Amino acid sequence: MDLGMTSNTVKLCYDHGELELPLIVGSEDEKAIDISKLRSATGHITIDPGYVNTGSCQSAVTFLDGEAGVLRYRGYPIEQLAEHSSFLEVSYLLLHGRLPSEKEFDRYVYEIKHHTMIHEDLKRLYQALPKDSHPMAVCSAVVGTLGAFYKELVDPRDVAQVDGAALRLVAKMPTIAAYSYKYSLGQPFMYPVDSLDYPANFLHMMFATPCEEYAVDPLMAKVLDLLLILHADHEQNCSTSTVRMVGSSMANLFASVSAGINALWGSLHGGANQAVVEMLDALAKGADTPEEFMNKVKDKKNNVRLMGFGHRVYKNFDPRSRVLKKVCGEVLSRAEGSCRLFEIAQGLEEVALKDEYFVSRKLYPNVDFYSGILYRALGIPTNMYTALFAMGRMPGWIAHWKEMHVDPAFKIGRPRQVYVGEKKRDYVSISLR
Ligand code: ACO
Fold first, then answer.
1. For the chain, is the Cβ count within 10 Å smaller at the N or the C terminus?
2. Cα–chain-centroid distance for residue 74?
């Protein structure tokens, strides 16, 4: 096969002829070859392990330029949103495609606040699970089960139902996550408090008890809000692609997002925030010196990675990690244990950015490198970090799911394969084998 390119088509020469393939150009001049007619015209498919070169859709939600370190939600730079916006405003932006007017935002906040409780019967689901369950297992189970409690909100073709489901997911996720922690401790679940804003409400549900007054530290609520903003979307990552894939079968939004939570759990994706802090904790306890650890990372036979480093798309810097590193510096004077981890993390980064192994592979800190250190400063237990990532990613998952369902090119997600197994052979009865 041979490819020849003109300004708006690509000519593919293959065994039996030639095929003109349209060239698609995005609003930021990204170019893609449209191969949707490839198999019907040529009998060939493409193969692309890990989808490294494959665009699964056209999307207007988030723009990411991994070479330039650019991230924008609906056109707005992440740095501006981090400085001036709030997580709920960002969630509105992602879900509706534009920033809300004051009146629209007040209404949205009111609606969110009035859907924060979970059904009393749903609490029994927690009791069916072991107390030491990972919070991601609990969150995916409870979120998936919402589909059983809101049967009137499960039709993907009904816009009002989808909007109702979306509102409940954004509103209830902090309650669902905080209850997983309370259950693990054996403490009573704390009801959401409408007078608190979104991040403060979560911290209250996590750390308050019915026995004593608990005042949320406004700085910690602000830091949490920032973390949620930075995690709110990241175009076609593993969990978002999972949410789209599951939704493409016409599974309801609750089921699709529950699958996304499971995809996020893995240590190569959202689970890296937990893995980074476990790595830093081990170094703080002297398991290895930083030099010994970096040597282990570079020696492939150890199968050890510098967690929180590297990214499929960012080949320069991850703008989210820059914001988080700056905030770590500002906040950590108040939290001693985390300060030590911050020092170790900065030391590892400094070494990595000068080391040929990392430089030649374009490996830079990603969002997870510094986020866990901030979660530690907020007093969040290590195994809850990825659940907080899920809370932040919720509006992004929903925005993509909704976008997919109104896309004129909508189809069930169903990749093909190149079969490399046995050729046809005849069954042999068990006594003759
Ligand atoms: N430490 C050491 N080496 C690494 C790391 C790392 N963190 N990341 C990549 N490499 C190496 C690979 O071993 C490979 O080396 P090779 O070319 O000699 O074989 C090369 O860099 C390319 O790595 P791939 O795994 O092919 O890159 P890919 O784009 O498939 O993976 C990923 C990206 C999964 C993020 C990877 O960089 C990684 O495992 N990082 C650590 C886990 C992590 O932090 N994940 C969070 C990502 S952000 C997010 O999902 C929210």
1. C
2. 17
Q: Is the pTM of this model over 0.90?
A: yes
Exposed e or buried b for every residue in 349-371, given b needs 16+ CB within 10 A? beebeebeebeeeebbbbbbbbb
Token readout for 355 is: 């080391």
Of 311, 355, 405, 426, catalytic: 311
List pLDDT tens digits, range 319-357: 999 999 999 988 887 766 678 999 999 999 999 999 999
Residues near ligand 1 with C-beta < 6 Å? 50, 237, 268-270, 272, 297, 305-312, 361, 363, 366-368
Distance CA 10, CA 400 (A): 29
Tell me the per-residue pLDDT of 23-48, one tens digit each, with 9 for 90 and over.
999 999 999 999 999 999 999 999 99
Q: Residue whose CA is closest, atom 3 of ligand 1?
A: 305
The answer to whether residue 96 is catalytic is no
**What angle (nearest 5°) sits at the alpha carbon of residue 147, between those of residues 141 and 148?**
90
Report the alpha-carbon distance of residue 222 to residue 400 in Å, rounded.
26
What are 64-92's pLDDT values in tens digits? 999 999 999 999 999 999 999 999 999 99
